[in-house]
């Protein structure tokens, strides 16, 4: 008899926290130390052409110790929770401290943090791991079959994924936190092919659909089978649609595309570790250097961007970050002005030195993708606040916005993305677009792309839809760091309009 | 590391818990360390070890996969039971025929080298010192990956391999310039940190004060790192049986026809003298050298057991771990060397760009395999065969098949390139391509 999928045999919080405390107690004198035990479960189902192509359940349990001593960090992680294994892991972390100390030029400082003893659990209505697998397969196969609307359909796909992270955190300042974080996602993806032409349509979003820190209720609300035929039909229609024109036009970005625009051109750009050069060896740096804080006009005065790890259902929502700092809501850009970074306890201390006007503590954005990875600054939910809610602009509806556009292109659902290593020059492609003429949505357009420079682009934003059209989209595939870490992040967005953007930049 | 005999016992024990029609287990043991530096000092220094077992169970063409990271009896029983339970809940896959049978595998000696924390810190320090001497800022990573992989199935497949790699890479930053360099080797003593430092520092100095340049169509000299980055998506969307048979590959339906210039030969060789050998795939099937493109003609594509049996083709040993929704992907693919030196190719450029690296390359349309991306870490203008000046970075939108039809020069040697993580080396020559479309510029 196997254990039920998603069942956590080590789920007793008291036992696991005691285990973490035991590990912490073995660490010799240090400036600071913390221990994280993480137990991860996931299940993935993927169908293709009416067949369940992947049906997988995964579990991984391990821990890490993070030691700050003599001004440098040491980090070691292992699956081995035996006393011998723990001793070896601590010994390794201390050896790493010693090696790093030999070449240090400055000391790591941490900002102050009060000890916290607490628990957090993602509020879910229906535990995805308790829903019978037969039912999940049935939902996906129905959604897969519903995509077969034409003989031009080459590939039909549907997917579902659920993840549970049990985290047990203790630190030398006396914090003791356990968290049970659950996130779920699902979607469909249709490929239509005709000769050399290939087009895709996804519902409700590309790259594995919509993902949120919610339970199976999200999958039920998506009604994949009901919506799949419409999107499959659009994939077929795109095969013969006109190519998106080339020129400088006003564009309206749908919320699911704007989510990735925010992710790439704002979310990564405000990571303070990037700004300080810590990611220079791989992902790059950021144009939002520290002297720009409080005075740089990042966007137009209706642009308000926040980092908010407290939004119910957001994929970047949690109780505490992996340094034990409470989840928070922070304005990154207020009325167009650059206001803040997403920070950690050590980077924020550096920022205090670099910009004496900055006096805030860590805003709690440090997470690791697994027990084997070093916690680092990651996006939480990085959001473009709904129009009309942050003191500037008005709450448009999408219909009003289209009616107010003389000529423009309305683009939906990301297809490609790329941005330079300082987050200036970006180019995005979407699955589909429609021409707007004299305030009316017109012909469907294939292969839409647009390109810009980040601050110029956000300064051209002149209308943002209000809360009724605002959704927190999940981006479960954010890569960063060496060794690489894939993190789940969220982006609240509603459709917004941008003036005179370079469109149709690719020759097809 | 646990060693072949111990892993074989664990695999057999796990398979003994299965009563299914067929079963397969994939076992891994790994020890990794990475010393990362930025702003001329070590800032992240980590080590981790793990093990894993993934079980694939087949019941009447119904397939379930489960994994865990423990090898005790209870966990082995549980992972097989979970995979079996999933298989029982599955619908039959009519395309599935069988797990593969045992085949003769070339034995490659285990080759494991652990780098110490001190060795890795010392490598980082060599780069930092060189950068500091020129008032530059060094960032980078020194990784040591040690891994053991084994595959067994109920038809008698057994395959085991252990290996390791040391990989030092750096990006050195100047006020308005940067330079990249890397080296990969089996042992710490073989990693040439001095050369890595020298190359990156030199590139940074040569690329300072970059000038604006108009986007447009240029001849390009792509250095090996850029060629490797260009070809990454071709590896995935090109000779991949799944995508090929879906009709979604740029090569679909073109077997036996001229797809690229006659000077282009593309080979996948897991035993090339300059790579770390990989004797088998993730189904325990033997790997061997295979030519995909010969003198521009498509001759072969990559198959795993599923697609080989489904499409009545020969398995080429390109399986990835189950469940694999991406299809079989070649991991040791390279463009065969030509007959030119790098300098001779630069001499042949009338007006073009020398590109060190590409960055954030993404596919716009897999069927046409046109991609977008940026240049990064030192780009130069060439005029009349001479490097004139550094230029600011540009965005490109380029069809890869078109580029491979416009290659006018191929370097006479292949450069080994690190994969950044894991025991993997890719090979690439410098290429001279007559047309490359740059669509916009950035600000640095």
Automatic annotation (TrEMBL), chain B:
Residues of the Metalloprotease TldD/E C-terminal domain: 215-438
GO molecular function, one term: metallopeptidase activity
Coiled coil: none
Domain Metalloprotease TldD/E N-terminal residues, every copy: 23-87
PANTHER family the record matches: CONSERVED PROTEIN, TLDD PROTEIN
Name assigned to this protein: TldD/PmbA family protein
Any Pfam family hit: PmbA_TldD_2nd
GO biological-process terms attached to the record: proteolysis
Segments forming domain Metalloprotease TldD/E central: 127-207
Family: Belongs to the peptidase U62 family.
InterPro entries (alphabetical): Metalloprtase-TldD/E_C, Metalloprtase-TldD/E_cen_dom, Metalloprtase-TldD/E_N, TldD/PmbA_N, TldD/PmbA_sf
């Amino acid at each position: 008899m196997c254990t039920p999928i998603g069942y956590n045999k080590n789920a007793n919080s008291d036992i696991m926290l005691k285990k973490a405390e035991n590990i912490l107690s073995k660490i010799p004198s240090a400036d600071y130390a913390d221990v994280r035990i993480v137990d991860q479960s996931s299940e993935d189902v993927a169908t293709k052409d009416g067949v369940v192509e992947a049906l997988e359940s995964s579990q991984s349990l391990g821990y890490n110790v993070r030691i700050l001593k003599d001004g440098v960090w040491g980090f070691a992680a292992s699956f081995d929770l035996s006393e011998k294994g723990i001793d070896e892991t601590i010994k390794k972390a201390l050896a790493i401290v010693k090696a790093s100390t030999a070449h240090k030029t400055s000391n790591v400082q941490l900002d102050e943090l009060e000890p916290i003893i607490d628990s957090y659990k993602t509020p879910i209505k229906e535990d995805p791991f308790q829903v019978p697998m037969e039912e999940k397969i049935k939902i996906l196969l129905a959604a897969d079959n519903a995509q077969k609307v034409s003989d031009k359909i080459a590939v039909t796909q549907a997917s579902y994924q659920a993840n549970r992270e049990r985290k047990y955190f203790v630190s030398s300042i006396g914090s003791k936190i356990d968290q049970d974080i659950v996130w779920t996602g699902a979607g469909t993806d249709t490929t239509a092919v005709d000769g050399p032409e290939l087009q895709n349509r996804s519902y409700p979003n590309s790259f594995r659909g919509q993902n949120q820190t919610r339970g199976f209720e999200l999958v039920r609300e998506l009604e994949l089978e009901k919506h799949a035929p419409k999107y499959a039909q659009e994939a077929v229609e795109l095969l013969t649609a006109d190519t998106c024109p080339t020129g400088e036009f006003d564009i309206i970005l749908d919320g699911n595309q704007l989510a990735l625009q925010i992710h790439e051109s704002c979310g990564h750009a405000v990571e303070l570790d990037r700004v300080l050069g810590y990611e220079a060896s791989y992902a790059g740096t950021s144009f939002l250097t520290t002297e720009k804080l409080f005075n740089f006009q990042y966007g137009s005065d209706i642009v308000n961007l926040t980092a908010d790890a407290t939004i119910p259902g957001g994929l970047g929502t949690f109780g505490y970050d992996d340094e034990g700092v409470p989840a928070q809501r922070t304005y990154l850009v207020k009325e167009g002005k650059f206001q803040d970074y997403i920070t950690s306890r050590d980077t924020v201390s550096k920022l205090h030195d670099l910009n004496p006007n900055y006096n805030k503590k860590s805003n709690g954005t440090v997470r690791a993708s697994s027990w084997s990875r070093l916690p680092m600054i990651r996006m939480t939910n990085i959001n473009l606040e709904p129009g009309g809610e942050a003191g500037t602009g008005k709450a448009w509806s999408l219909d009003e916005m289209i009616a107010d556009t003389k000529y423009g292109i309305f683009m939906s659902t990301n297809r490609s993305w790329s941005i330079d290593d300082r987050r200036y020059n970006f180019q995005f492609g979407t699955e589909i677009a429609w021409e707007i003429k004299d305030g009316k949505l017109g012909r469907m357009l294939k292969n839409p792309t647009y390109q810009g420079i980040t601050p110029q682009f956000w300064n051209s934003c002149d209308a943002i839809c209000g809360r009724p059209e605002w959704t927190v989209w999940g981006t479960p595939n954010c890569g960063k760091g060496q060794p690489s870490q894939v993190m789940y992040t969220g982006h609240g967005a509603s459709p917004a309009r941008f003036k005179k953007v370079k469109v149709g930049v690719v020759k097809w | 590391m646990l060693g072949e005999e111990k892993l074989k016992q664990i695999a057999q024990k796990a398979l003994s818990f299965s009563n299914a029609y067929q079963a397969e287990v994939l076992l891994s043991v790994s020890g990794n360390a990475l010393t990362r530096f930025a702003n001329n000092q070590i800032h992240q220094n980590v080590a981790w070890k793990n093990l894993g077992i993934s079980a694939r169970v087949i019941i009447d063409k119904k397939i379930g996969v489960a994994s865990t990271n423990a090898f005790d009896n209870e966990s082995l029983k549980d992972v097989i039971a979970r995979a079996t339970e999933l298989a029982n809940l599955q619908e039959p896959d009519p395309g599935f025929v069988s797990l593969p049978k045992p085949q003769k595998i070339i034995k490659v000696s285990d080759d494991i080298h652990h780098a110490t924390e001190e060795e890795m810190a010392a490598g980082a320090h060599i780069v930092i010192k060189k950068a500091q001497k020129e008032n530059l800022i060094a960032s980078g990573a020194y990784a040591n990956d040690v891994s053991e992989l084994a595959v067994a199935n109920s038809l008698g497949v057994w395959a085991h391999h252990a290996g390791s790699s040391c990989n030092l890479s750096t990006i050195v930053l100047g006020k308005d310039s940067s330079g990249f360099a890397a080296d990969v080797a089996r042992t710490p003593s073989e990693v040439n940190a001095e050369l890595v430092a020298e190359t990156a520092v030199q590139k940074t100095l040569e690329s300072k004060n970059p000038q604006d340049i108009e986007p447009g169509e240029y001849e390009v000299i792509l250095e090996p790192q850029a060629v490797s980055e260009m070809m990454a998506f071709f590896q995935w969307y090109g000779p991949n049986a799944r995508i090929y048979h879906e009709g979604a590959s740029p090569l679909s339906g073109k077997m036996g026809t001229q797809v690229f210039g006659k000077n282009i030969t593309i080979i996948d060789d897991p035993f090339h003298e300059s790579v770390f050998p990989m004797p088998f795939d993730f189904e325990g099937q033997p790997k061997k050298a295979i030519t995909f493109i010969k003198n521009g003609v498509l001759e072969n594509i990559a198959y795993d057991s599923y697609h080989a049996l489904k499409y009545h083709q020969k398995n080429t040993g390109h399986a990835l771990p189950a469940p694999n929704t991406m299809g079989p992907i070649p991991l040791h693919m390279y463009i065969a060397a030509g007959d030119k030196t790098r300098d001779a190719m630069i001499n042949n450029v009338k007006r073009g760009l020398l590109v060190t690296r590409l960055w954030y390359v993404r596919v716009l349309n897999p069927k046409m395999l046109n991609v977008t991306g940026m240049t990064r870490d030192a780009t130069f203008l060439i005029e009349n065969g001479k490097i004139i000046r550094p230029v600011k970075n540009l965005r490109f939108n380029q069809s890869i098949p078109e580029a491979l039809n416009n290659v006018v020069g191929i370097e006479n040697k292949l450069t080994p390139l690190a994969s950044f993580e894991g025991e993997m080396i890719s090979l690439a020559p410098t290429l001279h391509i007559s047309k490359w479309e740059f669509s916009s510029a950035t600000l640095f």
